[in-house]
Amino acid sequence: MRKPKLLTTSLTYSWPLFLADMMAGVTVAMVALPLSIAIAIASGADPAKGLVTAIIGGFFISALGGSRVQIGGPTGAFIVVVFGVIATYGYDGLVMATFMAGLILMLAGYFRLGRLIAFVPDAVVNGFTIGIGIIIATSQLKDFFGLELASVPADFIEILPALWNAREGLNLEAFGIALATLVMIVILRRSFPKFPGLVVAIGVTSAMVFLFTLDVATLGSRFGALPHSLPTPQWPDFSWSRFVELFPSALVIAFLAGVESLLSAMVADRMIDGHHRPNAELTAQGVANVASALFTGLPVTGAIARTATNVKAGGKTPVAGLVHAVVILIVMLVAAPLADHLAMPALAALLMLTAWNMTEPHKWAEYARGRHSDVALLVLTLVLTVLVDLTVAIGVGVSVGLALRLSRRKSVDSDWHTPEH
């Protein structure tokens, strides 16, 4: 079934539901705003692209999706692949790949392939998620410590030596801001779980940088002022040769968007005791990625952390996701100059914490107690993600995982006998 949840929930909608959705939408928007900016920066894109993605992609995922409470936007899982595509093919190449990924997801929804997520081994998902978390955390060390480094190498093996060689340039003011932000986010999340503590933490530490004129890089000093409006939609620059070279990247983006959105929807189902529509969700992801590409945004998918925040804040229907997108748009139109003062070490601290949460350390002991073959598959996927390439990691991981699954099937009894001679 591909009918959007927005249509079915609208049949019994009411003012009390709208008030609950509105409060939840505003709360999620406050969480999504700095996170979208930070993810765009870590991906090698302009920070405004993160806001555009959250607005356009988030709107269509909520309007057309198959989950009552799913929140869409740019996520940490895409940082590695987006950074790689931009570095290799330029930002216009990423836009084209995102557009193609959207079409692939729309086809997947049309042919009802939503249930195929069950065939992706958990060990593979866990392996590349932990690997992505490691890469994200490592990429943020430069801003976290305020190191003087012209650029962070794209290859993981080259990052650590480059950071070590730049250690003499440690900026204690930047490190202090990053550490204070990290501690404040953790304390506020534990003390007030329903409150958007990360917004307060980043706001307080960024205000300290401004008030005390600390020697700390800000969003405005590094990237200039954020735009006050959405970009004009435009078609990607299409050619057959471009299609061929970007098709593998489009497949990876589509795979990540499909897997993460459906995993997020399943997590949401457990939280609200609901049932999402996987094919409607894939279709919505496809439309959202096509729309994001038309507005030169980043790849978009359902965001597990923001979806959970929506549920905890009282979101009941997809209207909460629509409100979240509209609130970010209003902030972009009205209060963009305030974002220019966001401290880069504070955003780095946010991403470091996001990377830590992605790796889910509380589950490591459970993973270690699993089958030896599953542990080996997780480690294999993790190592390939970090040291080789995410595309290779997913391809090898899924192939090996499916082979292991087939090998575990019980042998089928047969009445065939060796012929007598």
Summary, kept brief:
The protein contains 19 helices and two strands.
Topology overview:
Layout: H1 5-10, H2 15-42, H3 47-64, E1 72-73, H4 79-110, H5 122-139, H6 141-145, H7 156-165, H8 172-191, H9 197-211, H10 219-223, H11 240-272, H12 278-294, E2 301-302, H13 304-312, H14 319-334, H15 336-339, H16 344-359, H17 364-368, H18 372-387, H19 390-407
Antiparallel strand pairs: 1-2
Can you characterise this structure?
- One of its GO terms (biological process) is transmembrane transport.
- This is Sulfate permease.
- It comes from Cohaesibacter celericrescens.
- Keywords: Membrane, Transmembrane, Transmembrane helix.
- The chain crosses the membrane at residues 12-42, 48-65, 77-110, 116-137, 170-188, 195-214, 246-267, 317-335, 379-404.
- The chain is mostly helical and 421 residues long.
- It has one domain.
- It is 69% helix and 1% strand.
- The protein is built from 19 helices and two strands.
- It has helices at residues 5-10, 15-42, 47-64, 79-110, 122-139, 141-145, 156-165, 172-191, 197-211, 219-223, 240-272, 278-294, 304-312, 319-334, 336-339, 344-359, 364-368, 372-387, 390-407, and strands at 72-73, 301-302.
- It has a two-stranded antiparallel ribbon.
- Helix 2 crosses helix 14 (319-334).
- Residues 411-421 have low confidence and may be disordered.
